[in-house]
Amino acid sequence: MYCDKTEIEQVILNLLKNAAQAMADDGTPSPTIVLRTRREPDTVLLEVIDNGPGMDQKTLNRIFEPFFTTKEVGAGTGLGLSVSYFIVTEQHNGRLSVTSKPGQGACFSIRLPSNREALP
Question: Domain Histidine kinase: where (predicted)?
């Protein structure tokens, strides 16, 4: 996989931090974060999966918007996921998506091209 390792590290650390904060704020019993990777035909898949409070559809519809946050005032800027989305989609020609339901945790999926020619 070809990528800017510092930028992808920033994306993964942001997802880990958000998951940890969501589970801590919710008081999730036995909080767990799973990192999973898999090679697909033309991409590499990285997943960050948690067993936290999850998100409703209204939140999912706005999750990658700049300045959107579900955190209390002063606890977040609402830029982490929008910057992560930009890094993955614009800087790496990849895809960043999320699946979640209230009470069922969240799974953020990062798909990056597995060949150098696919990069911008």
Answer: 1-116
- Topology classification of domain 5-115: Heat Shock Protein 90 (3.30.565)
Q: By three-state DSSP, how is residue 7 classified?
A: helix
3 state SS of 84: helix
Residue-wise pLDDT tens for the chain (120 aa)? 789 999 999 999 999 999 999 999 999 999 999 999 999 999 999 999 999 999 999 999 999 999 888 777 666 677 899 999 999 999 999 999 999 999 999 999 999 998 866 566
Q: Where are the domains of the chain?
A: 5-115
> Which residues lie below 8 Å from residue 63, measured CB to CB, with a gap of 6+?
55, 81, 98
